[in-house]
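Progress against Task 2.4 (sequence-to-structure conversion) is shown through the following example record, which the project officer requested during the mid-term review.
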Amino acid sequence: MKTHDFLLELGTEELPPKLLLKLSNALKDNLSSELKKLNIGFDAIKAFATPRRLAITISAVQGKQLDQIIEKKGPSIQSPEMAISGFAKSCGVDVSELEKKELGGKEYFYYSKEEIGQSLSGLLPEAIEKSIKDIPITRAMKWGSSDYSFVRPVHWLVIMLDKDIVPAKIMGLESNRITKGLRFIDPIIELKHAKDYEQVMSDKAQILVDFAKRKELIRDQVLSVAQKNNAEVVIDESLLDEVCALVEYPRAFSGSFDKKFLDIPQEAIISAMKSHQKYFHLVDIQGQLLPLFISVANIESSNIKAIVDGNERVIHPRLADSEFFWNQDKAKKLEERLPDLDSVMFMKSLGSMGQKAKRIESLSSHISDLVGFDQKASARAGLLSKSDLLSEMVGEFADLQGIMGGYYATNDGETQAVSVAIREHYQPRFAGDKVPSTNEGLVVAIADKLDTISGIYGIGQAPTGSKDPYALRRLALGLLRILLEAKIELNLKSLIDYSLNLHLKEVDRSCGDDIYSFMMDRLKAYYKDANIDSNVYEAVLAVSPESPLDFHLRVEALNEFTQSENSKSLIEANKRIANILKDSNEKNETLNPKILIDDSEIKLFNASESLSKKLSGSKDYQEVMKSLIDLKDSIDSFFDNVMVNTDDDKLKSSRLALIRKIRLLFLSVADISYLSS
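Structure tokens generated for the chain above:
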């Protein structure tokens, strides 16, 4: 079958930069899905995206649908005549034209016909229109007097198969082969062949339509400009993505700002540059912020100085605002802001931010007492942790909450422990982010996250399916990461109950078990990402450790155990023991070593006794599992030579009690019988 090269380009007003990749990928996925539904095969599909265009190319797409046999199953031959004739009528044929086929021992009427595949060009318009329409857009726009809507107004449409235009009218646009280059420079570009799209846009308009290639070009340019300034540039990948989504013809350049602004906390300067201006900041070899920035223009100018001067003029008032906010905020202590937090709503049914701060204070005090950290400093940091939300700086740059609180605490004369804890208590903010570095920071971070989780869960707003509007899954994983990575031993169940009891009466205090299960599910996801077998997780869960750290140590030990050559034999033995004991009542079992008669069971008893004494109360689970592996030969010999369910009731009782003892030794770590599934 003849194949073709396909091109779709939708020209638009400047698309939202943070949505560009999502829009592009959605269009690609939608069109791919539509073609598959139409039974049209293709080799490869590729998406392109710039601020003013979404494009798709497909190589070796089939010129028509594959012919196919359409078959419909009808009623059985024993069905009433009316049913049979009704089926035939629905198929547009006489009953005599129906086939009979056997299915499951019964005969049924069938209708089949060959459906000739339609040409691709005739199917494409509808498929493309649906693909565009199905792009998920939160806020669609309408323009002019039309009824069409999209994320931004559309201006041109290119649809081509090889050298030919595919006739179509979508959102009021007639398809053609004319695309547009940079504004005011290359207004019109005629495309000769679909397969040449990327190359033509590069050669004639200097536009890299491939997002990934354009992104790497920007990275190279930024690094080169930084090198010329004898500085190091800090490249935030999310900022790089956003800049890439803002320019079609990237040209990086550097500028500077007044050194006096370096007296402001550097995070505030960086945030002003990133959030408002999309600038990359530069640091010296010691990592100290320099009064320099790198920006990326969407044009190659013959007068680059004018562009630099313009950007420097724009950044000055931004930084002046930050300077003003900094000086203004320092005039009022965090403690003095506490009463004002009572007028700031945290969430309906959960009270004010002031009430939340007091709950964090109480939780922080309780947790630090449990783990032996500085109770006074932790409680103080917990109480002041949300005060910076009322500062001018955080009001302008929400991403600085906590960070500015740390600076203000230092300015207020609070201890370093309190200041650092306030600064770090939102950590980890995202996947890969660090956990807090201090004991007090760890405590307040746990308290803050647990308060939010327990409260929102307790008012019936738990995550459902893929929906998690309050990011409870992220918070739960962050809390668990703190406990595991900082090696903090806490009973999570009792801590959840303590947190629930601090909330207002509107919060359901009986949902502690549900919250615990929810958080343990996040732990399961954590281990999945670490490529640890889910059966290992289930085996540990079966013995219900209430401390996540204890849970984690068991998982690590069990995961290592599964790598042992002897693990398979022991796993199967445990499963066998579990099956034997399933119908046994522990109350009827009495271990009497004096009546054991076989050498194998005597040897197993002696080995278990010795091991029980050695491992009593041990939490070195890796060592425990290594010791249990030493029982392999004794267990194998026991099952090879001993009949547990003997006719001698007393002997049977002792043997059941013996294998239960063995099972309990393994259960001190996990139920390894789960590993056999």
